[in-house]
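Quick check before the chapter quiz. The format below is the same one you will see on the exam, so make sure you can read both the input and the output lines.
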Amino acid sequence: MPNDSMNRFDTSVRRALKVAAVFSIALVLSVSCASVTGKAVSVAVNYGDASSVNYQIDLTRKALEGSDPVEALARAKILKENVADSDPVDGLYADAEAKTAKSFEAAVNAGQWEEAIRLFRSLDALSAAPEGWTLSEVERLRKEDWIKTGNDTLAELDKLREESDTNEPPSPGTVARLMNGTVTVWVDRGIRVENGVGYADRVIGSGFFIDPRGYFVTNYHVIASEVDPKYEGYSRLFIKLQDGRDSRVPAKVIGWDPVMDLALVKTEITPESVFRLGSSGDLSVGARIYAMGSPAGLEKTLTSGIVSAQNRRFISLCDVLQIDAPINHGNSGGPIVDESGLVQAVVFAGIEQYEGLNFAIPVEYLKAILPSLYAGGKVRHPWLAASGRTVTLPGSPDNAGVALVYGLPEGPCERAGIPRGTVITAVNGAAIATIEELQAELLRVSPGTIVRVTGIPEPDAKAKDWFVLLAERPESPASAVIDRDLDYRAMLPVFGLDLARIGSSKRFTVDTVIPGGIADESGFSPLDVVELRDLKVDEEAGTVSVQLYTKRRKNGYLDAYIGLMASLDSPSYF
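Here is the expected output.
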C-alpha cells in the first residue's frame, strides 16, 4: 500500500484499535525461550545489553554457516532493526544478504525454480532484490522449463479460458468425451475386523485427468492411507477406467495436501480425454454446474445443480463453494464443470444428515498448489504461528485488518517482535482487511520466506513494518500450541479464553473472552474464576477438549463443571 494511502488508513485503524483494545495487552516477545515443565516461555531480548546482543549475533552467525542463509538473513534484519550503529551487526547483515543472493544465483543456474522464487521474495521483501532480476522474470524462466519438460498443464495455468455465456448444458458429445477423462479411485485396505468378523475395507472415490501423461486429481482423504505415516495397515491404490473393462490399473500418489484435501496421482496410461482448468472466480450464486464421478462406484455418473452459496469457510485455509448437485460416497475428488466443460471446482464433502448440502473446492486453490503437487511429496503451507480475528471499523461495516490475538512462543511473530494486539494491515505492501485476505496472501509464498508485515501496534500509533520468516504450518495448529505453550495460555487461541493466574495456584481469572469464540458461546465472561482440569488432544478425531471447574459471574458464581471442545484446526490460525 502506498505511504500516503497507508497514512490515511491509519486514522481509521486507530479508531478500530480502540474497539480491539482488549487485544492490546502488552506481552514481552522474544527470539529466545526458557522451559517450564517442557513448555516454552517467552523471554525478552534486551537489545540494550551488550551480552544479549552478542549472544544473538552468535546465533545468527551459526545460522549463516548452515545450509539456508534466509534464516540468518531474517535474524540479522531483526538485529539491525533493534541495534543502531553496530558495525558487527551491519557486517553480519551484509554477509547474510550476500550469501542469500549467491544462493539465488545458484538456484537459477540449477533450474531450482521454487527455491529461486523463495530466495528472491525474501530479498525483495528487504528491498534487496538481485540487480537485473524481477519476480516475473524468474517465473517466466520457470514456465519455459515446464514447457521444455512437457508439463503443459503447469505451463498453461495462467491461460485464460473462454467460458460459455449461455446456461445450456454441455452437449452429449462433450459429456461423453469428458467422462472418458474421469476415473474411479479404489484403495484396498485389506480386511477390517469388527466383533470377530472380517470385512473388506475399501475406499472409493473419483478422479479426473489433467495431464496426457497420466496425472489425475482426487481428494487427499481418498488416498490418505497411501501416504499417511500414522497409518500402519495394508493399502494398495488402483483405478478403474470408464471404458467398461473390469480392469484395475495401479496408480501412485505423487503429491498431496491434507489441508486443502487434494492429491495428484499418476498412472502409466495415456488418458482418452484430459480436463481443462477454468476459473471459478467468475461463478456466481445460481450459476449452473455439473458434477462427474462414481457415486457408490457407479461409473459415468453426471448430476447437475447450481452454486448455492460462495465463501463458505469449510476448510481452515480457503473458502469453498456450496452446491446443490447430488453428491454421494464415491463422488469425492470428482470434477465440477461449467457449461463449457471447464473444471471450476473439486468435490470434497457432503453432509449425510442434510441432503443436498454439498461442498466443492474452487479450482483456484488447486491451481495455486499444483506446482507443489507436481514437485512431489506433502505440500507445505506457511504461517505466522499466530491466531487472530478480523477487526471492523466502529460504526461501519468496513474491515480494518486482522488483530493479532496470540503468537506462539518462538514463532515467527514473536521472533520478529510483533506485539499482541497489533492490527495487521498489509503483507509485502498488499492491503489486508480480513483474516481470509491475510491467509490468501500467505498462500502465495512458501515456508522459509521472509515477508514484510505492516501493522498498527497499539491505538494511536503509526504503522510499522516487521520482517518475518514464515514457518511451516502444522496440520493441527492447536496441537502445536498445546505442545509448545503453557496450558492456560493455550486456552486463548484454542477456546478464545484469556486467563490470568491467581497467585501460584492452578486457579485463574478470565481476563478476556474472544467474541464469537467457543468460550463466549459457552457463557464465559471477564472476572469468572476457572480451574483447568483434564486437557486432552484427540488426533484421530481432530479435536481438543478441556474440563473446567468454574465460578461464573453470569451464574451467580455458583460452582460448576463445564466441558469445552474445539477443532485442532480453525480459520483463526494464520
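If your answer matched, good. Residues 87-109 form the longest helix (23 residues).
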